[in-house]
Amino acid sequence: MSDHASGGGGQPTDPASVPYDQEAPWEDTVEFSDAHDPEGWDGDIHGQWADDSDDVDGSAEHHDEFLASAPAAAVAATSRRELKAHRGRRKGRRGLVLLITLALLAAAAYVGVSVVRPMFTGSANDYPGPGTEAVSFTVNSGDTGRTMGANLEKAGVVKTAKAFVEAFTAEPKSAAIQPGDYALKKEMKATDVVAFLIDSKNRQVPKVTVREGLWATEIYALLAKATGKPVADYEAAAKDAAALGLPSTAKGNIEGWLFPATYEFSSKNSAAEQLRAMVAKTVSELAKLGVTAEQAPRVLTIASIVEAEASRAEDRPKVARVIDNRLAVPMRLQLDSTVSYGVKQRAITTTDAERADPNKWNTYVNDGLPIGPISNPGVASIQAALSPAAGNWLFFVAVNPEYGETKFTASQAEHDKNVAEFQAWCQKPENQGKCTR
Questions:
Q1: Whether residue 303 is found in the same domain as residue 425
Q2: How many domains does the structure of the chain reveal?
Q3: DSSP secondary structure of 176-210
Q4: Which of 235, 231, 215 is closest to 343 using CA atoms?
Q5: Residues 191 and 247 in one domain
Q6: pTM surpassing 0.70?
Q7: pLDDT in tens, 275-309
């Protein structure tokens, strides 16, 4: 060793400027111990060169030769640089592994939270339920699951339409949901809403029964009472024949086309929607019976008279036959039911003044059938108009209106006797006022 190596004085010299054949004066001040390099210098540097699989040009061999022949200062400087580079590579690998590990842990945590959180707080798309304030919700005829979902979200019942559609699709009984009003709550769980709508007992739909033989004006009053709509709404809607689906052969007259049945109309259904449903029912029933649009006005007119005049089922085809027989003679029908409709006064009998009224429905002053139906007939009366009973009757009268007993005859004299029987019934004390207004 030189004097410099044994700790003599003098200024340090830059190792990069020291020739290979000279020693650096401060070489012994740099220590490389196993404490700093647990793997040992030889195992780290020399082993790196010896085991490097990428050494295709013999660099390791030249390196060993360099270590054997180069001055100590050059070897030390080179070794320090290699050691720092090696440690940098090891730190880089450790950092990459750490980053990958942290990323995997973060992903696992996210998945865990996504799975567990809905168990305690509910889905982000859904309310946990059971709900808050009451709200009325309407399922309209023809609504799909998506339509209901959008309407429910708008009403604040479910958090998102998506949550309802998923619950609706997953429930096999969802097709059982019927149109109507339902008393729901805001902020309900989607599955709870589906279960509630499926139960028909939860429907709040007003039912209105329209019996056979009512006038259109009487039906308006009945519907208005059941749904809360003003009568004026029905009167206005009846004027738009095209919107109601009336055939052109009806000539804009809705009378006779409001089919008698029990209907379930939501309070949110407009008057026009209600009348349109009744007209559609009449069109459907006529089609089932093979009645064309051209035949419909005549069939409905005769059927409306049958509905007004006959109380018993067996008398309907007979009344239809009397009408056909009189029209064939020809002779005027002279039916009180047509007079009552023309003057809009319901009564068993009519007055001389009413029978003389020149309205177009009065069959006492006009030949043939009235200008249109005088009531809204049901299926039985329509069938009677299509298939009258066989017989030569020209007259009939209800001799006991209370029980509907009606007598038919082809003789004027016989008919006069039957009329006298009816008048006797009217004069009985217990029937006072039943035959007059």
A1: yes
A2: 4
A3: G--SEEEEEESS--HHHHHHHHH-GGGB---EEE-
A4: 215
A5: no
A6: no
A7: 999 999 999 999 999 999 999 999 999 999 999 99
